[in-house]
Write a structure and sequence with these properties.
There is one protein chain. By secondary structure, the protein is an alpha+beta fold. It contains 6 helices and 18 strands. It has 3 domains: about 60 residues, Structural Genomics Hypothetical 15.5 Kd Protein In mrcA-pckA Intergenic Region, Chain A (Roll), CATH 3.10.290; about 90 residues, Pseudouridine synthase (2-Layer Sandwich); about 100 residues, 2-Layer Sandwich (Pseudouridine synthase), CATH 3.30.2350. Helix content is about 20%, strand content about 30%. Strands 7, 8, 9, 10, 11, 12, 15, 16, 17 and 18 form a 10-stranded mixed beta sheet that branches. A hairpin with an 8-residue loop joins strand 9 and strand 10.
Length: about 290
Amino acid sequence: MILSHLCTREAPLLSILRRELALSSGLVKRLKWQDALLLNGVPVHTNARVRPGDRVTVDLSETVVGYEGEDVPLNILYEDDCCLAVDKPRGMLVHPSPRRNSGTLANAVLGYYQRTGQACGVHPVTRLDRDTFGVVLFAKNAYIHEKFCEMQKKHQISKTYHASVYGTKMADFGLIDLPILKLPGRSLLRTVAPNGKKCRTLFAVLARFQDVSVLELKPVTGRTHQLRVHCKYAGFPILGDPQYQSEESEAFSKENELFSQELCAKRLEFRHPMTGEKITIYSRQNVWKSP
């Protein structure tokens, strides 16, 4: 991706990069050692003097290090020069870790970039647990990733999930407002506790069956395992969830061979960080429904 700006004032290049192009200081420091800053087509340093009529160009191409691209099929939902949205399957990590450096969604995305000749980075904007499936959004460079991160802080990215849960006696819609606390030690699990972090989830019933309901869930806050914990402690655990079940939901899940959470990141909505266009992306996957 290339940024281009026709200057209208005289100033050091650094001032143009920070004010007009809104590049962070960290990104500028990284780019200046890559010959990625050009003034009228010539690589320059950040102290170069810029005059009205000069054109500043920034090359945002990236090379990913630390893991390899892999030839894995991707279900692409949306793509442009700035970002890529894919439909993540259940059972796949989003990003490599020290314990697992292959077989992740990031390896698949990098492999796709390599096959299509795109010099892009792999920057997850949204993340899902390994067994949660649905829409995952990636920024193609650090500049766009910073913009998405700022949008997330301002709650300008809307996430909607679908879940199959055990139980049918919840209200048609409502708000789950329960604080969530990380369990002590090295556990990743969470619980509801008065001294936990404030967490809020909106829910609405989409369908009811004999023992199962399908819910639409909208996280107001964004805590780890929030939807899974909230559903359990609200009295309607997500089916198949290996960590957050009741005895009844666990038995029902096993009976129906559901061994991972029936939770889908169904819809993602945001204004495009460069054009301002409203973007809505839907997963093509669906949660389990009662037979």
